[in-house]
Amino acid sequence: EIMNKERRFIIICLIALFYMTSCERYLSDQDLYSDLHIIPSVNYEGTKAAVSNANISACQIGIHVTNADGSALYNNKTEYNNILLKNTGSWVMDNGSGTELRVILYASNASIYAYYPYPGTISGIGPLCNLSMDVPVENSFALVTDYLWASQSTTIPTGGNPINANNPSVTLNLNHAMSQFAFVFYKEGYVGSGTLNRITIVDNSTPANLKVNKSGTNDLKMRLSDGLISGGATSSFTSVININSTITLDTDPGTEPTVLNNYINGYIFLTHVNIPDRTKLEAVIRIDGVDYVISIPGTGAINLLPGTKYIFKGKLMPRGILAIESVSVTNWS
To answer: Which of 10, 31, 138, 321 fits 27 for a cystine, CB–CB 3.0-4.6 Å?
Structure first.
């Protein structure tokens, strides 16, 4: 009798073990899951003139989550198309209407595409996803936009692991899609108030190369996979108005970009363009209602690459003289 009981117990244990191993053998991708967590960063640190790591926590970022090759939204969830990533003490995602949204990762790998500013109109999927842009010929300084993009399939920008349920925490690196012309001025004997009102960039090339909104149906857009800007129309000029920045420096601040960043009086963003002859490019600066025409120093072509920042330092003198003394070129990325 005892032997029979022991034999029955062993048989029951073997049957239970068989069912346990059978269940494990047929676990699906849906059985292992984790919530996606994203911490964004920016590929440039040190300027008050653009989105940077110093102010990114105040920014709203658009997120687009797909499968590994970007051919479909992750797990075919339509709500993963245009998600809001925001900081409320920590970075969280919601559906854009204030309702928290969980992005659930499974064993299959994901890719993340992102943009700034949110909200924005996006179209396409994955590497073909584009953000509609608004770059008018003339824009108020308070409305100028530093467009950013990101495309990442690993947990960190370089190297890292595939994004999936085992690796759900992502440091997402955003890149600047435009170039920037920034201006720093100081006074030497100038007695006016020194109020910078307007910056205009003029391209005297034939045809002109500066890219802005297209009239009618505007198709200017930025691709989220690489920041490529396409569509729109070309213009011979583009302006930022209502800057209303007062020039307070009365000594030469030098030429070190990290120092000049602290004294920027105004700036303008430009889409990527290659101008074959830089002597055709001018900046018209309006200070105290007077326009000063500035030629871009140097010879040959000038390629306004995405993420490139040009800092022009100028001296404002009596009798309406504005002299550009240096141009510092730094790379946001």
So the answer is: 31
